[in-house]
Amino acid sequence: MLENEAITKWGSFKTLDNKPNDFESFWKNGKKQVDSLSFNFSLVKSELYSIVAEAYDLYFVGINNAKIHAQLVQPKDPIKPMPVLFQFHGYHGNAGDWGDKIAYAAEGILVVTLNVRGQGGQSEDTTISKGGTIKGHIIRGVEEGPENLLYRQVYLDIYQLIQIVTKLPNIDLNHLYAYGASQGGALALLASYFEPKIKQVFCLYPFLSIFREAFKLDVEDSAYEELAYWFRYRDPQHKQELSFFKTLDYIDLQFFTSNIQAKVLWGIGLEDRVCHPKLQMGIYNTLKSEKEMMFLPEYGHEYIPEFSDAMRKKIYLDLNKDY
């Protein structure tokens, strides 16, 4: 019943009116900037106590000369080209423990987990900003315009990471997948925007969406609290509100998703107030590719049962259908 109520309330909600006219060229130029960089990288073997998998630290230099880090866990002595699962972590977090990736590596899959720059892992944040730098990464660089947004750099790190990984030897380019929750869910969707070869995306309650609406939805008790923080201390009379949101439009998930070609499995807890279901439905409604939403009425922004099993099943069926 709660699922039907959610569909009735938000099943047609989407707000695409504010998409910048130069949105596509903005990101095309961003990719050109990455393409102009050296694609040099280093792989450093990391200790992993496993008889089926081995681990590597991957380092590369991204936009603004930042050193970016990702974890790679792969099967030992793979006997055929490796499918790839790109994983992305939640806001403030990091790539997690190495051992978390062994199960997929045991199935012959290369697992790649990006550490988002400036958050809990090793990746550097080299942003120089005149604005407030205390409370949050959405607003980092916003006062200098879209070119200086920290998340512009993060999104381009994803593009660069995919370019590096897909050029590694022994990669199965026909079987690329992406997964994440919250911030990671948004980044998994963005990965498939930047790399159309990604076949399936598995996302839980994605973040970074429909900022204007997020600002209206009990913002100080949500993942978007930094929007209210910025106005409270940087623009208390909201004189810059229009330019503020126009800048954030360039990193708003809603303007990427209509171009995604991958199949999408989406998990949503209807009690989620960190990333409100209305925002999630608004993004889901922009997807034009094959999609499926798993509703959990009593769950919020937390562990979502049965999702990982559904994800493993879809990857297993996809691989074994083709192999």
Low-confidence stretches: none
CATH architectural label: 3-Layer(aba) Sandwich
The largest beta-sheet arranges its strands as 1-2-3-5-4-6-7-8-9
What is the residue-mean pLDDT, rounded to a whole number?
95
CATH homologous superfamily placement: Alpha/Beta hydrolase fold, catalytic domain
**Percent in helix:** 25-40%
What's the CATH first level?
A: Alpha Beta
Helices and strands, in N-to-C order? HHEEEEHEHEHEHHHEHEH
The biggest beta sheet is recorded as: 9 strands, mixed
Share of residues in strands:
15-25%
* Helix vs. strand class: alpha/beta
CATH topology: Rossmann fold
In total, how many domains does the architecture comprise?
A: 1
Q: How far do the termini sit from each other? A: 40 Å
Number of strands: 9
What is the CA-based Rg, rounded? 19 Å
Instruction: Please report the number of helical segments.
Output: 10
Oligomer type:
single chain
What is the 3D shape? globular
Summary of the model, kept short:
By secondary structure, the chain is of the alpha/beta class. The chain has helices at about 1-10, 25-35, 100-105, 150-165, 185-195, 210-215, 225-235, 240-250, 275-285, 305-320; strands at about 40-45, 55-60, 65-75, 80-90, 110-115, 170-180, 200-205, 265-270, 290-295. The longest helix has 16 residues, at about 150-165.
